[in-house]
Amino acid sequence: MIATSRLVLRSWRGDDLDAFHAINSDPEVMATLGPVMSRDEVAALIARMQAMEARDGHCFWALERTDDARLIGWCGVIRGTAGPVEGKAEIGWRLARAAWGQGFASEAAVATIEWVQRNLPDPDVWAITATVNTRSRAVMERLGMHRRPGLDFDHPSVPEGSPLRPHVTYSLELPR
């Protein structure tokens, strides 16, 4: 578990499904991430995160507010699986629409980066997103991440012709 003044990043629980499905089935949240997800798809996604955490000791963790213990999304680090971040420490976040614009993504990401510095040997943290995802790109820049234009790519799991296929790549060198 990672705690900040307003947030807790924690392992996934069985009772997270309804709240996380509400986030992943919101067309506004998913507009720059991919198609809205069914309840079964979200359950499978949570199961993948639980398996990653069991295998690697980290994943995109459940993200909740401390004041009301409400699940508002996810944030954490995985071993990248696509393009230039494959095998690297890839940071990511996804928040409920009601949690946007309050600094939660940046706060959780800073805590995740600090966790990576203490717990993983990686010299850098990486992030990717669809080129059109200006909100996530703004968070990456607030974190001090640098755009790596030579490493931008078409995401192989996004259909050709989709505006979400072109991806940008960012990285942050970790002080050691």
Automatic annotation (TrEMBL):
The keyword Transferase applies. InterPro entries: Acyl_CoA_acyltransferase, GNAT_dom, N-acetyltransferase. GO terms for molecular function: acyltransferase activity, transferring groups other than amino-acyl groups. SUPFAM superfamilies: Acyl-CoA N-acyltransferases (Nat) (SSF55729). The keyword Cell wall biogenesis/degradation does not apply. Residues 7-175 form the N-acetyltransferase domain. Signal peptide: none annotated. Keywords: Transferase. This is RimJ/RimL family protein N-acetyltransferase. It comes from Novosphingobium kunmingense.
